[in-house]
Amino acid sequence: MSEELGTGAENTWCLGCGDFGILNSVKNAVKELEERGIERKNLLISAGIGCHAKIFDYLNLSGLYSIHGREIATIQGMKFANPELKVIGFGGDGDSYGEGLSHLIFAAKRNADITMIVHNNENYALTTGQMSPTSVEGFKGPSTPKGSIEEPINPLLLMLSSGASFVARGYPGKMKHLTELIVEAVEHEGFSLVDVLQPCVTFNDTYERYNESVEIIDEPAETRFEAMELAVEEDRVPIGVLFKEEKDVYHEKVYPEFNPVKDKISKEDRLKRIEELIKGDE
Amino acid sequence: MDRFTYIVGGKAGEGVKKAGSSAANLFRKMGRKTFELDDYQSLIRGGHNFSVVSSSTGDIYSHYMKADLVVNLDGRSYKIHKDHLKEDGLMIYNSGDTEDGDGVGLPIDELSKEYSKSDLIKGVAGIAVLSYVVGMSKDELKKLVEKEYSRGVEENISFAEKIYDAAEEKIDKKFELDEGEHSLPVFSGNQSLSLGASAAGLDMYIGYPMTPASSILHFFAANKDHLKVMPVHPENEIGVANMAIGATMPGARVMVGTSGGGMALMEEAMSLAGMSESPVLFVLASRPGPSTGVPTYTEQADLRFALNQGHGDFPMIVASPGSIEESFYLTGEMLNMVWKYQTPGILLTEKHLSESSMTVDLDPSKVEWASSKEFEGEDYKRYEVTEDGVSPLKFPPSEDVIKWNSYESDEKGITTEDPEIITEMHDKRRTKDETIMYDLKEINTVNEFGEDGPVIFTYGSTTMSVREALKVGDIEARVVQPVYLRPFPIWEMDEYMDEDVIVVEQSSTGQFATLLREKCRIVPKTVIRKYDGRPFEPEELAEKLKEAIK
What we know:
The structure holds two protein chains of two kinds. Chain A has eleven helices and eight strands. Chain A is α/β, with parallel strands linked by helices. By secondary structure, chain B is α/β, with parallel strands linked by helices. In chain B, helix 1 (16-29) packs parallel to helix 4 (123-133), helix 7 packs across helix 8 (214-222) and helix 7 (189-199) runs parallel beside helix 13 (324-341).
């Protein structure tokens, strides 16, 4: 574990929270990425609002602590402005699969070159355990005292059908594996989603369920359709990279060879171009 | 003849707007100044659209609704514009769609039938008739059509010539227009403000389509490779505003644009920009509300909405240009402002300013290139408490850790709930607000037109209407137009406090008048309001002003 990646901020997650495993995996992934030549200064992070988002204060990396569900848009803005940066967004299930769902779908659709790590604990923990988009039917929380009457959404299926070019699922109980997934997701050029099955010891303790059911898959599915089949398996929970494909990324389709911040044209050049527009066809 | 007004009307899909903008260019080439209003409905085919182009050898700030020449491309247009003709004006109707009209009937339907785009081509009739009655030769018309209607040019020229021949045969009236001395380009308010932002170093424009702001997005999309301003069209306005905030962190100069409904969606991010101190410039192009309202028309009922954007206390700058020319310079200035103070700003316009076009004199070299206070030294703190409340910026990639935050945070950007730090950070932002006000006192924040006479307060596009009304009504008055609306330039208002003030605005409740009362205890004697979606007409407004002054 790399202590220097901490900030000294007091950690307020519950003892045993799955978020610790995610935090440590991220720290290890950052070290590994550095080994592979991606400098720490080129990493930029963002987070939504919720228990997951406290990771922003615990990681000594530059970034912008965003608002509920909007970190997905925040990191795309960062990336488009300066494509040499590698951007990582942390979201929760209520955050990325609820409030910010439209941003997630469209980020996948346009293949924005970003990485989203979603701490999926199947409830709204920071607001005391209400049902979330991924809560199982029957989930009891303060807003559903008799149990949720809604079926959960399957985020991986949703991402696969939205055109995501990298879809993975990890589990903090398998930290080394999760670290590898994060490294691969950040290295992937294009939209990457890592859905992390995060046990919430206080409101939704899923350690037992997932310890029994997760199973590491070694290879991604050959096709998007086969990945969808992996995503809906019920007798086991496959973790690993479900699907991965190479395709053009958004910012390079807009400007193949231009970084808006780094290659900004000079004032003189800009004014000359404006004069041309003003003069028009005179 | 000095002032000349041309109206062309027809169904959506008949090339009405193009018949308007081509006319504006025709007048421009005669060295005249022009003002063009496009009145269109929220539909793609049918209905009634019209363009009014008024021109003059001298300054002109508004269209006029009494026209010298009206060209009606269909029957409905004739019925609507019957009353818009001057006594000695010339009315042209489509004899294929109007029986027994007053004026001159031309067989527009019959002649357009043989062309592949028989509806869209009809607009060319407007420009052909205009060319004939102002004394242009058929050859000059051909050249104009070649330039203005380059797509399908042969058919367009052929049709234009047939209309010209028909006009020559049936019309026995001509207008001799004075040539002017200007050679200025014609731009819409949205084009002008987009150019102004570009001249201040804009790197990115992010927008989701919404009338009357959409044409800003279209402008940057069309000029993507020429201007190197990256256009982005995301999933919704929430995505727009949050992407913009993210893009400012590595240093991109970003502008976003929308109308009222979209601004409501951006409001959450507006507050985030206030807290995280993100320099984003928002363009709020108003249209009549509430809700969907009347999408393609004009109103000034978003003033309070603009001034009160965002939950919580934070500094914000709101300014509204009073002309299409001013929208160029002010937008450049506002991009500088938001970067200088690292806080959000709103450029408030209305449909009438955003989408009307006029001849403008734009000098990009007069616009400052937006810059910011940048950090030098060691131990970087994003929210360092400084004397003026503005913390130096550092952009990633950097060896220093740079943390921006939506939560209240310490100077380093780490979330806090500490009462002392909360107080300290509130004070920091408030200090910044005071710095902004202090600096605004040094620059022009209020425009004044006229030397003597009663005081007329107005703002935004209504300023153009008032100035034209004073001209046509030969009224002596002082027009006071606050350009900056937040912070409101109360320091400029002392001399008006004891005057009998008249307010002119386009809001049913008089939002601007109540703002004057609230900010500087000016209680207007008369508030002239208009809220039918249409801008003021100068001759009508002149009558109202004369009554108010009496």
